[in-house]
Amino acid sequence: MSNGEFDFGGGAAERKPRKTPPVSVAPAAAGAPVASSAPPAAGAPAAPATPLSAAQRSTTPAAGAPIAGAAPSGVNGPAAASAESLDAAAIAQAQANARKLVAASAGIGVHVAALDWQAIADELNAHGHAIVPGMLTADECVALAAQYAQPQLYRSRVVMAQHGFGSGEYQYFRYPLPAMISALRQSLYGPLAAIANHWHEVMGMEARFPADHAEFLARCHAAGQTRPTPLMLQYGPGDYNCLHQDLYGDHVFPLQAAILLSEPGTDFEGGEFVLTEQRPRMQSRVEVVPLKRGDMVIFPVNHRPAQGARGVYRVAMRHGVSRLRSGSRHTLGMIFHDAN
After folding, report:
1. pLDDT tens figures, 115-149
2. Is residue 262 situated within a structural domain?
């Protein structure tokens, strides 16, 4: 994308949903290392990513995939055999999902680089959000949503009603991030950093963001923001998410993303993604963002620039989810700064 001036008044060209041809990845040399999704030590250079070979993609489960174990203590005979059969089926399904995500993660960087980032910037400037249709396939969404039931992948679980955040729950991933989460976070950051730097420039904000995500994370970690923030959210009937901002510390990357993993009208009813703009000396504006399964929405964490009669001014943003009327809804949240 261009680093020149962005148009804050125009619209954005319509973009096509993601195509899903098979991704061709050159086989890795024997003994070649596989890139880790763990964060670098503060100040350490980012290690180059090494693509997984075809054999590795077909046999390697994602980080945290469950491992087969013995039947529960005290169970024997037919009951033990039945428990082992159920455990084996669940384990096999989890491993199959993990293999799909490891394979898919190899093509995420290519897909992200091919997006029309100037159109995305135009849409963010004009409307305060940008939709990327079909960022993930239906199979990838199903496999990711299934990971919500694997607690070993997460560092903490939050029940929203206990904190006045709404109703529903979410879990923060732990380091090392699963392959797909890491690939999305790293590949999206670079193009968004160019937009973020321009926004800070026109809003008169001092902070600037390096092109490399590892360098930005090192800055966060040096300030004590060491806890990963990508998260998975789960909503059931009657659940909702209050309007909020995901700040987490002094170092805040000004853009974030969410990917809807469930199909509206089939998996759930209601549960719309909502944005509000608090404009100076004006009433707040509300936007309901229509998403389908696999769509990604990019939106501000805190402020965005808007064009006024006297120049550019800051608009404060918040986001939330309206009440779910029925069904179940899963969302992947992608935040690029870490937390205190």
Report:
1. 999 999 999 999 999 999 999 999 999 999 999 99
2. yes
Q: Which amino acid is at 9?
A: G
- Tokens 């669940």, residue located: 90
- Tokens read off for 49: 């990513």
List the structure tokens of 277: 């703009």
Q: Write down the residue that tokens 């939106």 correspond to.
A: 299
Q: Which domain holds residue 248?
A: 116-334
Each as own residue / partner, the long-range contacts of residues 33-37 (CB below 8 Å, 24 or more positions apart, any chain) are: 34/60, 36/176, 37/63, 37/175, 37/176, 37/177, 37/178, 37/179, 37/181, 37/182, 37/183
The answer to whether 243 and 165 are in contact (CB under 8 A) is no
Give pLDDT tens digits for 213-245: 999 999 999 999 999 999 999 999 999 999 999
- The tally of domains found in the chain comes to 1
* Distance separating alpha carbons of residues 291 and 127, to the nearest angstrom: 15
Question: In the structure encoding, which two tokens stand for residue 16, read together?
Answer: 């096509």
